[in-house]
Amino acid sequence: MSSTINPLANPKGVKTLCELCQKPAKLQCTNCRVTYYCNPDHQQTDWTSIHEKVCPLLVSIHSPPPLHTLQADRERHHRETLKKQEQLIEIAHLEAQKWVSKKSFHHAIPAALLFLRWAMRLYGSHPVKLVPAYLLLAQANIGLDSMSQAREYLTKAEWAVMNTPDCNPTVHHQLHRSLGRLHAATGKYSSALFHFSNDVYYASEVFGLDSIVTFGGYFLMAEVFLKQNKPDVTRSLYTEVACFWHTHLCKLMEGISQSGIQAEDCFGDAQCVEVDQMLRCILEFEEQYQKPRSDQSALLVHSLAMLWLLCNNYTKALEYGKKAEVLIQGSSEQNSMRESIQNLLHYAEKHLQ
């Protein structure tokens, strides 16, 4: 990371604003020379979040076309710049999603802001294309307990969706999920369940009833029922989610052993963290329930072992696999799961040698 206070960066009458807070800024990135900060902390946060990955791209985007070129050359330069802007938006989008999945909300904000800023430049006449950025900013602010800011972003997202009659069901699903999270965080559980129900409906329209996305909605509904002190309903939904993930992970394992699918093709880092948090949450609930079920705990631990093996973390896969091997001894699923667990342990041990 490179920075300096450049006296020539602020010509008289021209104001530069901080990339993060939009306050007057004099601290300039000396690599791209187009990004400013009001203090070193903001620069460091932005660098870690997103700027390190896009700094060279910003230089290229802001490079003017050569002087005295033909019209065809200028048009080609314009097309190439548009492609680079789209690439920048995609990088910022993915990085913001990654930080949100890891619950590193402080780092999610700069990436999501960059995503929104460049989406506005490129898609300003199509507000619905800004919705994914609004939703990421809302999620990050919910995570930081900044509910008023989250509401502001969600209001903008709702307005964009309402004014787009043919809006994609995927956007509806994402909007309802974010609204559900906001209401759940502020204790409005009935409203949260309403939005999560709509989330599940739209997700099933796009991805099907038996999909990772749809069952993510069921998990969020279960968390609301738990907050409402309805453990039996919570347990029922948690059981459905746990069984879905166990079946899904078993199929992925079969794909690796039979079809040659690479483990790294199954999960990205952010998704691995998100699924791990979900399964561990269900496992903790099951272990603390008044009548814990050893077979359900074994299923969840086996799922965690498979997840981490698919994410190439063989140490964690071995740890959970050995725990599953112990739990299965008292489980009614002993015969059907034992072989799978033993194969997993052999696979993990082989890669750790």
TrEMBL record:
Presence of the UniProt keyword Ribonucleoprotein in the record: no
Domain MYND-type: 18-55
GO molecular function terms listed in the Swiss-Prot or TrEMBL record: zinc ion binding
Gene3D superfamilies, per the entry: 6.10.140.2220, Tetratricopeptide repeat domain
Keyword annotations from UniProtKB, A to Z: Metal-binding, Zinc, Zinc-finger
InterPro entries cross-referenced by the UniProt entry: TPR-like_helical_dom_sf, Zinc_finger_MYND_domain, Znf_MYND
UniProt-listed Pfam families: zf-MYND (PF01753)
Zinc-finger in keyword set: yes
Name this polypeptide is given: Zinc finger MYND domain-containing protein 12
